[in-house]
Amino acid sequence: QVQLVESGGGLVQAGGSLRLSCVASRSISSINVMGWYRQAPEKQRDLVAAMTSGGYRSYADSVKGRFTIFRDNAKNTLYLQMNSLKPEDTAVYYCNADLSSGERYWGQGTQVTVSS
């Protein structure tokens, strides 16, 4: 089992930056895939960025070149650096862990609001 706790959300003006953190309750080095999803009001939860245990990264087209996913295995922490934020990035951001066993875990979410 894995518990995930996100932090770092907040209110920022368009063009600004935020860094989200996701602290896991166990080592993340062997977790198959970890990622960030977001969900805006009345919309589905969509993948923003993901990173495999081997270091492969993938991004949604809407955030390529602006967001970077990375991790610190020593701190059991996954990060999402968000630059050049736009109002359409406003959403609740969730951390996700997919284990090789097929289990999937979610954090509680952190709100990101980008004002125009």
List the helices and strands and how they pair.
Layout: E1 4-7, E2 10-13, E3 18-24, E4 33-39, E5 46-52, E6 57-59, E7 67-72, E8 77-82, E9 91-98, E10 104-106, E11 110-115
Parallel strand pairs: 2-11
Antiparallel strand pairs: 1-3, 3-8, 4-5, 4-9, 5-6, 7-8, 9-10, 9-11
Shape: globular
Distance between the termini: 40 Å
Low-confidence stretches: none
Biggest beta sheet summary:
7 strands, mixed
Can you give the helix content as a percent range?
A: under 10%
- Described by its quaternary structure, the protein is single chain
Number of helices: 0
- Secondary-structure element series: EEEEEEEEEEE
Radius of gyration: 13 Å
What this model shows, in words?
The protein has 116 residues and is an all-beta fold. The protein has no helices and eleven strands. Helices cover 0% and strands 53% of the residues. The mean pLDDT is 96.
Question: What descriptors fit this protein?
Answer:
single chain; 116 residues; mainly beta; 7-stranded mixed sheet; 4-stranded antiparallel sheet; 11 strands; 0% helix
